[in-house]
Amino acid sequence: MNHHIQFRIDGFCQRFGLRLPILLAPMAGACPPSLSIAVANAGGLGACGALLLQPPAMHAWAQEVRSQSNGAFQMNLWVPDPAPLRDPAAEAEMAAFLGQWGPAVAPGAADAPLVDFVAQCDALLAAAPPIVSSVMGLYPPEFVARLKAAGIAWWANISTLAEARAAAAAGADAVVAQGMEAGGHRGCFVAGEAEAGMVGSLSLIPAVADALAIPVIATGGIADGRGVAAALMLGASAVQIGTGFLRSPEARLPPAWAAALALTPPEGTAVTRAFSGRAGRGIATQYLRAAAAADAPRPAPYPIQRGLTQAMREAAVNSGNLSAMQAWAGQSAMLARPEPAGELVAWLWQDAQGWLG
Prior knowledge:
40% of the residues lie in helices and 13% in strands. The N and C termini lie close together (5 Å). The relative contact order is 0.16. The chain is of the alpha/beta class. The chain has an eight-stranded parallel sheet with strand order 1-9-8-6-5-4-3-2.
């Protein structure tokens, strides 16, 4: 392996207590403790996408992962958007549309509140993970100061070079460079720019690595050793993988979703706001395609759309109905393997080393 790449990887792993530069992506709603425990015990880094968790659940997640692993994990929160503008007539139109795909939308569904962000930030500090990460923006300076005072590293998810520079200037210890190939929500700082600012990993990783003095973690479209090796050669110090772990039994994914990943080519995914109101990449299901049609109602802003679609999404999971399921997937979904996560970590690194020479 190239000396410079080895030096970069070794420095990153030593700093963050890892044996391997393979990280689990913090996927809200798809990060059970079992998956992080397996990844961490294999030498990588576990992850909790804590967006949907109340503080007691955040504490319980961290406690379970710590008790059954080496304790290497990150916890992630979304930085809140400004309050959305409401349009009752448009929301009613969307509710009627969603009724074709699942149960009737209950009155008040659009009013479902978010978990209190300040309480979640306090819970992060109380859980004291080695690493906290942000997405959809940067943590407020006062919270960054509290993290640093507690000895907790801060990683900032970015999707453009401008965002990367802003994160470094704000004191981030590393950036997670999210290419447009990534599954799930796009981490753009400004919600309205998610589709316009689509930058692929092949361009984003080297641009950010050349511009910043802090480590770059690559994510998006990486699901085998070739992708790991390519990201490291482009300047990343580690890789973060989401979709590539979703077929592992520890991910406990709905079977219809897990099976569909194996059949989804790169062009079989699409970026949509039709589930949450925030742009995210998922399998181009019947609902996703119908929601993109010219005569379909426009999705409401986040989190209103998320509240409106909740009944449909839950019913789809309960019935195994992929057509209306929120089946997030990156463009390399076909490369995901149905193997135990620990074995997958070992294979990813072994395969990458073969490509790196």
